[in-house]
Structures are given as C-alpha cells and as structure tokens.
C-alpha cells in the first residue's frame, strides 16, 4: 500500500506535540473527561435507556395514534417520526440520532424518513444549553429564552419546507420483541458503546483544539466543539450582539465533534449524514437571519 506522506507528516508532528506538551495534553484530556462526566453522561445515559424503554413499551405507537396524523400532514413523513422529534426536543443531540437509528432498525422508519427527520430534529440538551447561556448572558432572561427556543422554531420551519419522502412506514413489519431482561441488557450495552464513542470524540477534538488553537480563538473552539466555544464566550469581552451571533452559530451548526458523533452513531445504517449536514447549514443561515431581524 502506497504511504500517504502528508497525513503521516501531520501524525508525526502530533506525536511530537504529545511528548513536548505532555502536561497540557493531560490537562486537556482530564478537562474533556470532566465535561463528559459532569455535563453529558448524566443527561445522555438515562435518556438513551428511557428512549429504548419507551420504544419497547409502545410509546411510539401511542404518539403515532394521537399525534402521528398531524405530524404526517405537517412534515410528510411517517407518523412514527413524532416520537423521534418528541424525544429530541428534550434529550438533545446526539440522542436524536440514537433514537432515529433505533426506530429505523425496528422498521418504524424508512431510510429516507430517518434521514429527513434527523435533518430537522437537531437540538442541544436544553438544560445544558440554558445553564451555559445564563453564564454567557447574565441577567438577560429574554435573550437567553430567545436563543434557547430559536432552534425549535428553525427546525420546524426546515421540516415544513422539505420534500415529502417516497417510502411509507405502512409497508414495514416490526421485529419480534426480545424478553425484557435481554432487551434491557442490550440497551445498556448499546448506550455505553455509544457513550464511549462520544467521550472519545470529545477528547479528540479537545486535543485538536489544543494543538491547532493555542490562543483559544473562540470561533475556532466553537467550530470544533460546541461546549468549548460556549464556555469561552463566558469570559470574553465581546459585545452582547456579537456573543449572541456566535452562540447562535455554534448552537445551530453543532461543532465538528457533534458531526463526527452523528456519523459514528449512524454507522452501518443507510441513514444519510449528508442530509443532516444540509439541515445544519440551513439552520445556521436561518438562525443568523432571525438574530438580525427579530
């Protein structure tokens, strides 16, 4: 196999950096682990298990019965998407990809429907986001609420304007259920596998930020990892308006770390990451326009 010289060159530089800046590397890794353990794991793990249990005990069917037809008329996709959208609103990303993937694997959504719903169900965990925004904009409750609810408005607009999907959920046959014990065991294993991948992704992007962004430029930090970017805004001396614009961009696009997490969760399924990326570009553009005109 022919060696790829440019990637090898950067990998050698990164290895040398690890030895030269060992103390910084250790601090960076510990910071990423602290963020994961104190902010992300407590919110993501229970929501992943709960979403699986809701699926097992038939909440998607219940939501489909009462809200499915409305969801289908508004967004032109399977009524089972109502469950995915409902969970996404409360648990945030990347839990939405985890739920949508499971709905696809349970034959509740086609790949086209799963890809479409993924593109307009992108939200940060509301509790985490509310806490961060209150630190960035202290004593500015109206602004905090505006930024907090903007993703919901924009995602709904994106969903309403997307083309109808061609496949119908009614052609699918659901899988036979496992026993509750086996299902719960599989749920825990799958959740922990996904969470370990998320931890690894966050740690990697913390290290990349330490290497490529030694002066901790806020926009670069936010582009790589949303929590680092929002955290950097807290201590910044930028104007309120500039902070608002930057925070909205970070929240709408999500950071490359989130994108890699989504791509990893969707691995081994035909659900389209490209549709997710298109949705984030649309969301970023529309959100910035709303900031300027509302």
Short synopsis of the structure:
The chain has 294 residues and is an all-alpha fold. The protein has helices spanning 5-20, 22-56, 59-75, 81-91, 95-105, 111-119, 126-136, 141-161, 180-212, 218-224, 226-234, 240-253, 256-265, 273-293. Residues 168-172 have low confidence and may be disordered.
Textual characterization of the structure:
The structure is a single chain. The chain contains 14 helices and no strands. It is mostly helical. It has one domain (18-162, 178-293). Helix 2 packs antiparallel against helix 9 (180-212), helix 10 packs antiparallel against helix 11 and helix 12 (240-253) runs antiparallel to helix 14. The longest helix has 35 residues, at 22-56. The chain is globular. Residues 168-172 have low confidence and may be disordered.
Notable characteristics:
single chain, 294 residues, mainly alpha, 14 helices, globular
Tally of helical segments: 14
> How many independent structural domains?
1
How many strand segments?
Answer: 0
Structural class, from secondary structure content? mainly alpha
- Beta-strand residue percentage: under 5%
SSE topology string = HHHHHHHHHHHHHH
Q: The biggest beta sheet, please?
A: none
Estimated radius of gyration: 20 Å
Task: Flag low-confidence runs.
Answer: 168-172
The mean pLDDT is 88
How many angstroms separate the termini?
56 Å
Shape: globular
Into which percent range does the helicity of residues fall?
over 70%
């Amino acid at each position: 196999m022919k060696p790829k010289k440019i990637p090898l060159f950067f990998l050698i530089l990164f290895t040398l950096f690890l030895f030269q800046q060992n103390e910084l590397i250790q601090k960076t890794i510990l910071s990423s682990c602290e963020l994961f353990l104190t902010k992300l794991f407590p919110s993501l793990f229970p929501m992943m298990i709960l979403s699986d249990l809701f699926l097992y005990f038939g909440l998607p069917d219940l939501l489909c019965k009462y809200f499915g037809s409305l969801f289908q008329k508004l967004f032109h996709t399977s009524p089972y998407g109502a469950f995915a959208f409902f969970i996404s609103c409360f648990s945030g990303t990347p839990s939405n990809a985890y739920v949508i993937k499971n709905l696809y694997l349970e034959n509740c959504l086609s790949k086209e429907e799963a890809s479409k719903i993924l593109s307009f169900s992108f939200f940060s965990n509301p509790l985490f986001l509310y806490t961060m925004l209150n630190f960035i904009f202290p004593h500015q409750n109206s602004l905090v609420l505006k930024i907090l609810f903007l993703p919901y408005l924009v995602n709904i607009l994106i969903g309403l304007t997307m083309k109808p999907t061609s496949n119908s959920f009614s052609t699918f046959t659901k899988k036979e259920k496992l026993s509750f014990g086996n299902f719960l065991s599989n749920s825990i294993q799958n959740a922990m596998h996904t969470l370990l991948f998320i931890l690894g992704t966050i740690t990697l992007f913390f290290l990349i930020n330490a290497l490529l962004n030694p002066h901790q430029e806020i926009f670069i930090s936010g582009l790589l990892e949303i929590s680092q970017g929002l955290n950097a805004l807290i201590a910044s001396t930028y104007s309120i308006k500039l902070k608002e614009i930057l925070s909205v961009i970070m929240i709408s696009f999500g950071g490359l770390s989130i994108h890699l997490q989504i791509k990893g969760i969707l691995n081994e399924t035909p659900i389209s990451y490209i549709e997710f990326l298109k949705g984030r570009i649309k969301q970023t553009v529309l959100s910035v326009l709303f900031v300027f005109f509302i």
